Amino acid sequence: MTEGPKMVTVTINKSQYRAEEGETMLSVAMRNGIDIPHLCYEESLDPYGACRLCMVDHVTCGKRTMMTACTMRAKEGLEIMTDTPEIVKYRSTLFELYLSQAPKSDVIKKMAARYGVTKTRFLKKIVHDDPLGGKCILCGLCVRVCDEIMGGSAIGFINRGPSTVVNTPFFDENPACLGCGTCAKVCPTHAIEIEDQGDTRVMKSWSGTRIKLQECPDCGQYFVPKAMLEEIQSIPDPGIIDELKTLCPACRAKEIAKSVFKSTFQGSVYHG
Ligand code: SF4
Ligand code: FES
């Protein structure tokens, strides 16, 4: 019999909660409805504490130390406070910084407003010609997901200091971009723009990189980058007949439903 995860008791804001040993304190808090603001936490990637917004007080022997909840692992007896006056002040200053870094981000404006922060004392980033429309906080999630999950490494950090931006090398179209759009899905500030124009996906934020899309043979809708489909088709999947692999999700669902109906009365249309 396999043993389940070891459970521990942790304390958040003086209340006790059960947690899996080693899970992040941010996820324990979220699961229990305790609000800790966060921007750079993405379940599919290792936490790396870039945005600093999830800072909480770690309480040990009556002393408090500020630490990021997304990188803090649950262990027996661990105690944190999520909203002390010092933490609130720290987050408020961070929000001012983010309002200057990403002055066009409605996500940041909304989060900051909850802390009473509507203005910034810091110099605002000049946003004309910014391919990310003044919404990027440089959290790096898009870069990491492209590199670590998709294996594309199509984008990266360019320049240094206040001039740092995320984009394709030399701001050129990059054939390494698959056009999967995972970067846009994980971007916490919705900074990344992608537009499908007929048979082409245009990665507007990534130097206008253009990617050919596959047409669904049933409904004629362009729905997935050709290169991605080829990768998907190369994955052995004996449960689905090959013709279904080229269909868009809606037509595929219809075909599968028809197949299930037919197989009930006339025998299976699935291979194997
Ligand atoms: S574009 Fe979005 S995900 Fe990428 S670094 Fe900027 S804020 Fe983060
Ligand atoms: S979510 Fe923890 S530092 Fe960003």
Provide structural commentary:
Keywords: 4Fe-4S, Iron, Iron-sulfur, Metal-binding, Repeat. Residues 124-146, 167-197 form the 4Fe-4S ferredoxin-type domain. Residues 6-86 form the 2Fe-2S ferredoxin-type domain. GO terms for molecular function: 4 iron, 4 sulfur cluster binding; metal ion binding; NADH dehydrogenase (ubiquinone) activity; oxidoreductase activity. This is Ferredoxin. The chain is α+β, with helices and mostly antiparallel strands and 272 residues long. Among the domains are: 7-82, Ubiquitin-like (UB roll), CATH 3.10.20; 84-125, no CATH class. The chain has helices at residues 25-31, 85-101, 106-113, 141-149, 182-186, 226-233, 242-245, 249-266, and strands spanning 7-12, 15-20, 55-60, 63-68, 79-81, 156-158, 165-167, 195-197, 200-203, 209-215, 222-225. The strands form 3 sheets. Strands 2-1-5-3-4 form a 5-stranded mixed β-sheet, with helices on both faces. A 4-stranded antiparallel β-sheet has the order 8-9-10-11. The chain has a two-stranded antiparallel ribbon with strand order 6-7. Strand 9 (200-203) and strand 10 (209-215) form a beta hairpin. The chain starts with 6 loop residues before the first strand and ends in a 6-residue tail after the last helix. Mean pLDDT is 90; it is low at 267-272. Bound molecules: iron/sulfur cluster (SF4) and FE2/S2 (inorganic) cluster (FES).
Order of helical and strand elements: EEHEEEHHHEEHEEEEHHH
Form type? globular
Using the coordinates above, name the CATH class of the domain at 7-82: Alpha Beta
What's the pLDDT, averaged over the residues?
Answer: 90
Give the proportion of residues in helices: 25-40%
Strand order in the sheet with the most strands: 2-1-5-3-4
Question: Helix/strand-derived class?
Answer: alpha+beta
Tally of DSSP β-strands: 11
User: Which architecture of the domain at 7-82 per CATH?
Assistant: Roll
The low-confidence runs, each spanning 5 or more residues with pLDDT under 50, are: 267-272
Report the biggest beta sheet as strand number plus sense, adding barrel if it closes.
Answer: 5 strands, mixed
Q: How much is the radius of gyration in Å? A: 23 Å
